[in-house]
Every structure is written in structure tokens, then in C-alpha cells.
Amino acid sequence: MSYKQLMKKYIWLLFCSIITMLVSGYVYINHYFSFIMLIGVTCSIGSTIELISLIITTHKGNKEE
């Protein structure tokens, strides 16, 4: 997997987390502000962890070639 594909995947993950946050915000705006923050943070952490693991596997794959 090249770095271009990696960045596309990361941008897509980021986009998904923003959409999730907006939808949750729209649904729970009056009552559960902390819940919205929790979802937003969880999505961001999940995206970051996936990006790091992708970079590691890509780096290993490039070394082996």
C-alpha cells in the first residue's frame, strides 16, 4: 500500500468520524453533550490507531521488498 492510498484512507476515516459526530450532535444536542464528545474522541482515537498500524505495516512491507 502506498502513502497516497494511506492518506486517502485516513481522510476517509476522518470524514466518517466527523459525520458520526455531526449526526450524534444533531440527535443528542439538547441532552447528551458529554455523549457527543465521547463519540467524537472515540472516533478520533480509532482513526489515529488505525493510521499508525497502517503506517507500521506499510513500512514493514516496503522494507521486505
Molecular structure report:
The chain has helices at 3-28, 33-64. With 65 residues, the protein is mostly helical. The protein is built from 2 helices and no strands. Helix content is 89%, strand content 0%. The model has no long low-confidence stretch (mean pLDDT 72). The chain starts with a helix and ends with a helix. The protein has one domain (3-64). Keywords: Membrane, Transmembrane, Transmembrane helix. The chain crosses the membrane at residues 12-29, 35-56.
The outline comes out as: elongated
SS-based structural class? mainly alpha
Our estimate of the beta-strand percent is: under 5%
Euclidean distance between termini CA atoms: 12 Å
Name the helix and strand elements from N-terminus to C-terminus, one letter apiece. HH
- Count of alpha and pi helical runs: 2
Question: Can I get a quick summary?
Answer:
Keywords: Membrane, Transmembrane, Transmembrane helix. The protein is an all-alpha fold and 65 residues long. The protein has helices at 3-28, 33-64.
